[in-house]
Design a protein that fits this description.
By secondary structure, the chain is mainly beta. Helix content is 15%, strand content 37%. Strands 1, 2, 4, 7, 8, 10, 11 and 14 form an eight-stranded antiparallel β-sheet that branches. A six-stranded antiparallel β-sheet has the order 6-5-9-3-12-13, with no helix packed on it. Bound molecules: calcium ion (CA) (2 copies).
Length: 239
């Protein structure tokens, strides 16, 4: 049985400590240079960055934003919209905020609440504003750094009208962000049969229990509870 499972994993192309564990950057311009430019998301100002997928579908794993937060009661609202005619149209998902938001300038990671697949050839918008009391700025580089990756930059929009109305006005400010995806194949789908189910979970347990380096999902060369929780999270998201 173990031998058969090993063959399965090998067939799925999951080399030890290598690709196949997700974390592919679909598009981004991080880390940014933190110079001069930012979007102050106060008094209802909203900002959006758009991207168009190329030839492959991709599952969302996380969105990273370079933010400057001035107080503990800031409440970012980070959402993904589908595009219609070059502007955000249909709300697809409001992302989970980080458990600890902190205060200050840092990269913050927002995660999907369920599975979200970006379809090849379609355009999507990352839309951000602040619903809390403290101030929130979304950093941008100066001079501008155009987001790059497997997807193509599709525009930068702002609105000075109170949220949650998506923005529609062109903005020259290119905010610092990164869309991280599972890649075309879900890392949770360990046996690569196109479904994330109990078979994958038991396969991970087997790799984990046997100390197989393929269970080292965070690549720190130790197989421990951190890797287990990373897999649980991927499994829950189907990522
Ligand atoms: Ca599977
Ligand atoms: Ca590890």
């Amino acid at each position: 049985m173990r031998r058969a499972l090993s063959v399965f994993v090998a067939a799925a192309g999951l080399a030890p400590g290598a690709a196949g564990v997700g974390g592919e950057v679909l598009i981004g311009n991080m880390p940014g240079n933190d110079q001069a430019r930012s979007t102050f998301l106060e008094n209802g100002r909203i900002k959006a960055m758009g991207f168009t997928l190329d030839s492959e579908n991709a599952w969302l794993e996380a969105v990273r934003l370079r933010l400057d937060i001035t107080g503990p009661d800031v409440v970012p609202l980070v959402r993904i919209f589908a595009d219609a005619d070059g502007v955000p149209a249909e709300l697809l998902m409001t992302l989970n905020n980080p458990i600890v938001l902190g205060v200050g300038l840092d990269d913050y990671r927002f995660t999907p609440t369920s599975r979200l697949m970006f379809e090849a050839g379609k355009t999507y918008w990352l839309v951000v504003y602040n619903t809390g009391g403290a101030s929130l700025s979304w950093l941008a580089s100066g001079p501008s750094v155009t987001p790059q990756g497997q997807a193509t930059h599709a525009g930068s929009l702002y609105s000075s009208v109170s949220g949650p109305i998506p923005p529609i006005f062109n903005s020259p400010t290119l905010n610092s962000y990164e869309i991280v995806t599972c890649g075309p194949i879900s890392a949770a789908d360990l046996n690569a049969d196109g479904v994330v189910d109990a078979d994958d979970f038991f396969l991970f347990l087997e790799l984990f229990a046997s100390g197989d380096s393929r269970a080292d999902l965070n690549g720190d060369e130790t197989i421990d509870a951190n890797d287990f929780f990373i897999y649980l999270n991927k499994f829950a998201l189907g990522c």
